[in-house]
């Protein structure tokens, strides 16, 4: 009986020693893996802080849209009045504007176009009119058409430069029970800026400056 107890004790000692040896052998690899898996430290980018999706790492188009800067009106242009007047006629023709000979005064440097209908149709007339003129106070009207009249005035400053003024009379037509009626609206300056830009490019051959 005593001999049997000694054998059991030896077996237990051999088992513990084997388990300890196995655990000690794993330390170099598996234990290191376990340690690195449970005790991870945060990534370090050094001095580079613009990575990732937070902060300033990604720019989704901010500050890319530049505000539209309006041209001065009148605009000072380096050109004689006769040169500008020929350019006005060319720009009007390109934009399908017809000069009103009765209203124009070429000797005084004033050229007026006939009314140009830029939109027709009840579905789109109001939105297009709103682009060119203020119509907030007349939303209830049934707009069916829109037109504008361009007036260009060239005033010579000296022999080589002139002041150019462009004005637009914007009108909307309302077809009511009493019949069709053209109503003058307050221009937003879109038609004026568009024509002035085209005129300056035609005379100078380049992009107009905001501060001539």
How many helices in DSSP terms? 4
What is the total tally of β strands? 7
Mean pLDDT: 78
Question: Could you tell me the strand content as a percent range?
Answer: 15-25%
Which ranges are low-confidence, i.e. pLDDT below 50, for 5 or more consecutive residues? 19-26, 48-57
Based on helices, strands and strand pairing, what is the structural class? alpha+beta
Rg value: 41 Å
Return the string of H and E elements. Answer: HEHEEHEEEEH
- Give the terminus-to-terminus CA distance: 118 Å
Helix content: 25-40%
How can the largest sheet be summarized? 7 strands, antiparallel
The 3D shape can be described as elongated
What does this structure look like?
The structure is a single chain. The protein is an alpha+beta fold and 212 residues long. 35% of the residues lie in helices and 24% in strands. The chain is built from 4 helices and 7 strands; from the N terminus they run αβαββαββββα. Strands 1, 2, 3, 4, 5, 6 and 7 form a 7-stranded antiparallel β-sheet that branches. Strand 6 and strand 7 form a beta hairpin. Helix 2 crosses helix 4. About 8% of the residues have low confidence.
